[in-house]
Design goal:
By secondary structure, this protein is mostly helical. It has 14 helices and no strands. It has helices spanning 24-27, 37-48, 55-62, 78-86, 90-97, 115-132, 144-148, 152-171, 199-230, 236-242, 246-264, 273-279, 287-303, 305-308.
Length: 309
Amino acid sequence: MELTRRAAPNVGLPMDTSIPSQNMDSILNRNTPAASIYQKSLNLLDKLACIDGFETYLKSLLEDTTRDAKNGTPYLNPIQLLWDTFRQGTSLCVIYNALQPVEPLSTTLDESSNLLRQRKDRVYRFVKACKDNRIVREEDLFTISELFKDDTNSFVKVLKTIEAVVDTIEGRGLLDMSRMTEKPSARFAEAQMGPPQDNRERLIKEFVDTERKYVHDLEQLQAYMDELIRKNIISSDSIRYIFANLNSMVDFQRRFLIGVEANASQPPDEQHFGAVFVNMREGFMVYEPYCANYTRAAKLCVAEKESLK
């Protein structure tokens, strides 16, 4: 399932590590969800634009005549743009080199050799350098396969790693904000939502806020599941039945939210929310296992009540 791109104006498409001992009601009913992957990507995009050498990647990817890697259409959202950029490998080396390390990473490729292999090699060198120099905690580092996997669950980890590196660059006073003459995020936020001016805008804001809250709740549940697995609190069979298809649901709902947010950032006459539902209708099938397994999962939760507290 690919993230939505600007194929036509009407086409639409962090992880908190809460622990099992927390009350489930408080986990699933937070009033202020963390920023969505869309919002985080916009923020990161602007910071990356301030890194010497990174403007080359943004310029080639953001030009009106440039098309994304697979569909040959202009990017609709910042997530796919960053995803494709990071997969080039050398872009990650440029980010790392902004730390002014003693041994900078190579930012070039041999055009006569296997490019994919070289790109993966640059990704490996970036991850290894971050680990060896303790720039990012080992458990927060992504793997090569996670970067090249078509799964937002993996990209969330990639984003977390890059954010940590950029935060370190900024913390050391090495992020030159004066380099940014135009915010790249503006390409994806032509009509950033301010206070609602009419009923339609109020409905859209409520729609976006509700979807963000729902995805946040799913991510909290996912973090809870991961902690249960890590601490081996209940059996793998119980995990499978209680959290049936949860990872696929989170991935789908993130993609749906990205489509909603991408539409919400457009001027009113270019917003086509119905197209998001139509173009992603098959994706809603991820809820079939959840629905089919709901009764059994509920009974298991009751049976495992003491362990799940």
